[in-house]
Structures are given as structure tokens and as C-alpha cells.
């Protein structure tokens, strides 16, 4: 579904030396997989995830989405793919606190240019109800607990019926019990709804929820 | 469509959270729009006032004055070198011109007036019985002087309503009473209906006395007139009569020794001067709109910096550059439109409050102009901050703390 071929990401620092966040990384993620990308902090795993999630473009190398090379597609087209194809879950939840929980979950639908085959509000409410948040629809996200916020973020990632969910340290800001609940939820999405899940973490017990673990160190896939 | 609704809703949410900031930011536009709209309204009022004055004078009337005062539609800068005035022979000449209904010579004297209640200075206008017609005056009580009064050099006067009130209490009291003009006793035979006007430097016909020009020769031994008013059959005859008069007068005077003025010509000369003045004032007021726009730009840059993370989140979930651009542009336009609408409302109240003193009014053009300009300012000054927001790199924006 997503393939990275010889992907490097370089940052030139102070016009002097080049820092390689990623070095000729090769990676393939197949449909319906549950993959963990594991490595210590600074290993380049976040860069890898941003490239997989089409938030960032590699300096060299090629990225294929459904066998289509994306380096030549426009910014608008990338936005469309992020909107329809990928759902993000972040460590800091990244919810917009001035919007309500319901509005946050519905937000991706307003950026979709094609006709939706569902009613945004009904779908948002049904996902939030399933996650036990039906009493919090009109609350502001910053009034919720960390676990609840992360469930709102997952609901937002699901609203557009994506093929892929990218979770960047989703349990990083949660206690271990809540962290495992979130992981159970992601596992369930992968198993029952056949959504591909890519998880970035530095914790081995979190990484082990996945069927495949990709290790990364110093920008190289090992 | 859903997007637009969402954009405006979130902008309004944002404003209601920052009411003070929103108000202060729109204040610049508010003041600018207020100043521009009020000045335009005053300009329109002034123009209306002037044209009403000319309307009262009659569009079918032509004036002859000594010297050259008008050239090419505007006032000529050079002062008249000719100091002479018109005399009885000119009146006879004018009366012979085709389509002239009546001629009223005018001599003015400003002097001490002595009535029942008061002694003060006022203006007396000596003219013929045609003055009533030429100036569109109407008699309230009594009568106007007639041809026989003129030929008999009768010492009679007709007075303006204000004179009657000030010197005798009311019009009925004044009729038949004596009034002393520069030590000469006149009998009041009529009081005129109030014509309004005055103020704004225009003549106040209610404060004049009117007497036969022949009687006026007492004070005017040279028998000269500073102005001749000619009434034509109707305004369509004005150009032809003007030409004929010019032909006749050139037999006696040089071209630069007299001017023939049509009220409409004078009106357009005056309005063109006021238009330029008004335009200058409005342009000065418009500077405050630019200042207001800069204020909006400033606050929009602050808003963008405050919300880098939010921009990153929106980009990550699929917002295009154009979505971010229109979101911030909409906020800028909304900010300036709030200022524009409040400014317009305030200008309306201001104009309403001066309306009984001055005929200022707000026309549809200024409403559309105010709203158009304020949203144009929002777009112009909002586009730079909005572009900054749209061009943020999604990865960097979402990592921003």
C-alpha cells in the first residue's frame, strides 16, 4: 500500500554540515497490516512517520502510495490524500481546543471536496458513542482526561474512513493502563475494520501489539 | 458552502473570545468609515443646499453683472478692472430683447433702519415691480409695490418677514407703519412670506427691505445698478436670450465689461469647487482607513503566530493551502467589515442628529462604498498574513509548541 524506496531526509545545519534524519530507508507497508516502527528518540522514526503520512517529502528517494509515485503530485493532491487516505493520532492529541469534541471529529469532513457517502454529524456521534464519549460531544477537548482526548483524536482519524491510521507515540502522554486501552482500541480497528495501522513508539511492550516490528536506529532501518 | 459556514462560525467564535481585541482592531476601520461617510454626507447636503438656493432663484432667470466673473465654467482669478455699473438705458435695451418677460434692476444699500421696536442696520434692495417675479418672492400681507409706485417714486417699502417680526412684532402690526431708512421715512405696504435660506453665507431674503428703484435714486444719485435680473419666458429660452443680450450689450460695452450669468452655470461652477474640496477632505479621511487596515494586518500576523499549531493540525487532516488562506482572509474581512458596519451606523446617527440644522444625507452609493471599501481593506491587508499561514510547512507547524 505504501512503499518507501531509498528514502533519505537531510537537514543542512548552519550551511555547514548535513544531518541525515533518514538514510536510504526502504520500507513497505501492506494493506491491513499492523506495523510498529521502533527506535530510541532521535532515531528518525518521527521523520519516517511524517513521510509515510505524506506530511513531509523526502530529500531523495521515492514514496509510492498504491504504486503511485508521489514526489510529483501537487500540494493540493497531497492534502487530499491526507484527508481521505490517512488518519493521524499524535502523542499530544493535537485537538483544537476552541472547537467542541464533536466539531473536532467532524473537522476533516469540511476539507473534503468530494461527495461524502455518510452524514458527518451522524457518523461522528456514532463513533464517539462507541468510544464512550457520547456525554462529551459539546465539551472542549482540554476539559477531558488524556485517555478521552486520545479517543477523540482516534475518532477524528476514523471519520473519513481511512485505509491507514498513523499513530505517533499514541500512549506517550498516558498512564500505562490508559495506554493499553488505547492500544486495544487500535488493535480492534485493525482486526475488525481491517484498517492498516502504523505505530511509532520507543516502548517495547507497546510495539509488541503489532504483528511486525521495524527497528530504526540513526536514520537507518535495521 | 459548508466550509464557508464553518470558517465564518469559527471566526466569530474567535472574536467573541477576544471581544476587546476585536473591537480595538476594528476601531481603525470604524473611525475611517465614519469620517468618510460623514464627510460625503455633508458634501451631498451642501450641494443640495446650494442647488435649492438656485432653484429658488429660478432657472429661467439671467443676471447681468459688471466685469468678467466667469470664464470657461469656473471663476476667473483676475479681479474685474471695470468698475462701472448699469443704468436706465441698459434696462430699456433689455426690455426690447425677444422673450424677455421682465427686467429688474438691483441697487443695494446697507444702512440704518429705524422701526417701532428697534433701530439697527439692515439691507434695502431697490428694484422694479418685476423683482417679485424675478426672485420668486411671495407677499404674505399687504401688497408689493407696482409700476405706478415706481413711476411716482413713491416712498413705500415691502419688508421681509423677519424685519416685520423684529421691528414691529408681527406682519399685521407692520402694515401701514412708517419705517425710517437713513433718515428718509417710508411707508410699509407689504410683508413677504418667509423664503428660508440665509445662513451658510447666502442672502437671507427675509431680512431685506424692498423699495422702488426710482425712489432709491435718493441714495443713488448716479442712477447706477450693480445687477440686472432678466426673466425669460421659460428656461428653454435662456441660451437664445443670452446670445441676444450679448449682441445688444456689445454695441455699448466691451466684452470684458459685463458678464451674463445663468444660474445653472453659476451652480455648476460652485458645485465643481465644492466637489474638489469634498474630494480632498474625503481623501484625507481615507488615510485613516489605510491606518486601520495596517492595524488589521498587524493583528492578523499575531493571530497567525498564535495559531501555528492549529494550522499544522488542519493541514495534517487534509486542509489545503487555499483552505487555510481563505480561513484567515475571512477573519480579516470579517474584522474590517465589523468596523465598516459600526462606522456606517455611527455615521448614520451623526447625520441624523445634524439633519434639522443641515440637509446632510447618506445615499446608497456611500453605503455601498463604505461596505465595499471596508471588505476590500480586509482582503488587501489580510492577504499577506493569510499567505504566511497557508505557506507554513505542515510538519514544522504541527511540531510547533
Secondary-structure content class of chain B: alpha+beta
Derived structural class of chain A: alpha/beta
Q: Supply the number of structural domains of chain B.
A: 2
Mean pLDDT of chain B: 85
**DSSP helix fraction of chain A:** 25-40%
Largest sheet of chain A: 6 strands, mixed
User: Spatial order of the strands in the main sheet of chain B?
Assistant: 4-5-10-7-9-8
- So, CATH architecture of chain A? 3-Layer(aba) Sandwich
Mean pLDDT across all amino acids of chain A = 91
Q: Whole-Å distance between the termini of chain A?
A: 21 Å
Distance between the termini of chain B: 32 Å
* Strand-residue proportion of chain A: 25-35%
**Relative helix content of chain B:** 55-70%
Largest interface: A-B, 25 and 25 residues
CATH-assigned homologous superfamily of chain A:
P-loop containing nucleotide triphosphate hydrolases
Oligomeric state of the chains?
heterodimer
Order of helices and strands of chain A: EEEHEEHEHHHEHEHEE
User: How would you write the strand order of the largest sheet of chain A?
Assistant: 6-7-8-3-9-10
Number of strands of chain B: 12
CATH class of chain A: Alpha Beta
The whole-angstrom Rg of chain B is: 32 Å
Question: Can you walk through the features of this model?
Answer:
The complex is a heterodimer of chains A (222) and B (401). In chain A, a hairpin with a 2-residue loop joins strand 9 and strand 10. The model of chain A has no long low-confidence stretch (mean pLDDT 91). Chain A is of the alpha/beta class and 222 residues long. In chain A, the strands form 2 sheets. In chain A, strands 6-7-8-3-9-10 form a 6-stranded mixed sheet, with helices on both faces. Chain A has a 4-stranded antiparallel sheet with strand order 2-1-4-5, with helices on one face. Chain A is globular. Chain B folds into 2 domains: 182 residues, no CATH class; 197 residues, no CATH class. Chain B has a 6-stranded mixed barrel. A two-stranded antiparallel ribbon of chain B has the order 2-3. About 3% of the residues of chain B have low confidence. The interface between A and B is medium-sized, with 25 and 25 residues.
Amino acid at each position: 500500500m505504501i512503499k518507501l524506496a531509498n528514502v533519505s531526509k537531510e537537514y543542512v545545519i548552519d550551511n555547514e554540515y548535513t544531518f541525515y534524519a533518514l538514510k536510504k530507508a526502504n520500507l513497505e507497508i501492506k494493506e491491513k497490516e499492523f506495523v510498529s516502527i521502533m527506535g530510541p528518540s532521535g532515531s528518525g522514526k518521527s521523520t519516517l512517520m511524517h513521510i509515510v503520512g505524506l506530511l513531509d517529502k523526502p530529500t531523495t528517494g521515492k514514496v509510492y502510495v498504491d504504486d503511485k509515485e508521489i514526489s510529483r503530485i501537487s500540494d493540493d493532491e497531497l492534502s487530499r490524500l491526507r484527508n481521505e487516505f490517512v488518519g493521524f493520532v499524535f502523542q499530544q492529541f493535537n485537538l483544537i481546543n476552541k472547537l467542541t469534541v464533536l466539531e473536532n471529529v467532524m473537522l476533516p469532513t469540511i476539507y473534503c471536496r468530494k461527495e461524502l457517502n455518510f452524514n458527518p454529524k451522524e457518523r461522528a456521534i456514532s463513533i464517539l458513542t462507541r468510544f464512550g464519549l457520547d456525554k462529551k460531544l459539546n465539551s472542549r477537548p482540554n476539559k477531558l482526561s488524556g485517555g478521552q482526548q486520545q479517543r477523540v483524536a482516534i475518532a477524528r482519524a476514523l471519520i473519513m474512513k481511512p485505509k491507514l491510521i498513523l499513530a505517533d507515540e499514541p500512549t506517550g502522554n498516558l498512564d500505562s493502563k490508559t495506554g493499553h486501552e488505547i492500544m486495544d482500541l487500535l488493535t480492534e480497528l485493525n482486526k475488525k475494520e481491517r484498517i492498516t495501522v502504523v505505530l511509532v513508539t520507543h516502548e517495547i511492550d507497546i510495539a509488541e501489539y503489532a504483528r511486525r516490528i521495524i527497528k530504526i536506529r540513526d536514520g537507518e532501518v535495521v | 458552502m459548508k466550509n464557508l459556514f464553518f470558517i465564518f462560525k469559527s471566526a466569530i467564535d474567535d472574536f467573541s473570545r477576544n471581544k476587546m481585541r476585536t473591537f480595538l482592531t476594528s476601531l481603525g476601520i470604524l473611525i475611517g468609515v465614519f469620517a468618510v461617510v460623514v464627510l460625503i454626507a455633508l458634501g451631498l447636503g451642501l450641494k443640495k443646499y446650494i442647488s435649492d438656493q438656485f432653484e429658488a432663484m429660478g432657472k429661467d432667470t439671467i443676471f447681468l453683472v459688471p466685469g468678467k466673473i466667469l470664464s470657461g465654467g469656473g471663476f476667473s482669478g483676475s479681479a474685474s478692472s471695470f468698475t462701472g455699473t448699469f443704468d436706465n438705458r441698459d434696462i430699456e435695451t433689455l426690455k426690447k430683447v425677444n422673450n424677455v418677460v421682465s427686467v429688474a434692476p438691483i441697487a443695494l444699500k446697507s444702512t440704518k433702519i429705524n422701526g417701532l421696536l428697534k433701530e439697527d442696520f439692515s439691507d434695502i434692495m431697490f428694484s422694479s415691480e418685476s423683482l417679485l417675479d424675478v426672485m420668486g418672492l411671495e407677499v404674505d400681507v399687504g401688497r408689493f409695490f407696482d409700476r405706478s409706485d415706481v413711476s411716482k417714486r413713491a416712498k413705500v417699502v415691502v419688508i421681509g418677514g423677519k424685519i416685520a417680526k423684529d421691528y414691529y412684532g408681527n406682519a399685521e402690526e407692520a402694515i401701514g407703519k412708517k419705517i425710517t431708512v437713513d433718515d428718509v421715512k417710508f411707508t410699509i405696504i407689504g410683508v413677504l412670506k418667509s423664503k428660508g435660506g440665509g445662513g451658510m453665507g447666502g442672502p437671507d431674503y427675509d431680512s431685506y427691505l424692498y423699495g422702488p428703484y426710482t425712489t432709491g435714486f435718493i441714495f443713488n444719485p448716479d442712477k447706477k445698478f450693480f445687477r440686472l435680473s432678466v426673466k425669460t419666458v421659460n428656461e428653454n429660452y435662456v441660451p437664445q436670450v443670452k446670445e441676444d443680450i450679448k449682441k445688444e450689450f456689445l454695441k455699448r460695452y466691451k466684452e470684458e465689461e459685463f458678464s451674463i450669468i445663468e444660474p445653472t452655470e453659476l451652480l455648476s461652477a460652485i458645485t465643481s469647487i465644492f466637489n474638489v474640496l469634498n474630494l480632498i477632505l474625503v481623501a484625507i479621511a481615507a488615510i485613516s482607513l489605510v491606518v486601520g487596515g495596517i492595524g488589521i494586518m498587524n493583528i492578523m500576523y499575531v493571530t497567525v503566530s498564535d495559531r501555528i499549531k492549529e494550522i499544522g493540525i488542519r493541514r495534517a487532516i487534509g486542509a489545503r493551502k487555499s483552505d487555510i488562506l481563505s480561513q484567515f482572509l475571512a477573519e480579516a474581512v470579517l474584522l474590517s467589515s465589523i468596523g465598516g458596519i459600526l462606522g456606517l451606523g455611527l455615521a448614520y446617527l451623526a447625520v441624523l442628529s445634524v439633519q434639522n440644522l443641515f440637509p446632510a444625507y447618506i445615499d446608497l452609493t456611500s453605503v455601498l462604498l463604505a461596505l465595499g471599501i471596508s471588505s476590500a481593506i480586509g482582503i488587501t491587508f489580510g492577504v499577506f498574513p493569510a499567505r504566511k499561514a497557508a505557506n507554513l510547512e505542515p510538519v514544522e507547524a504541527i511540531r510547533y509548541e
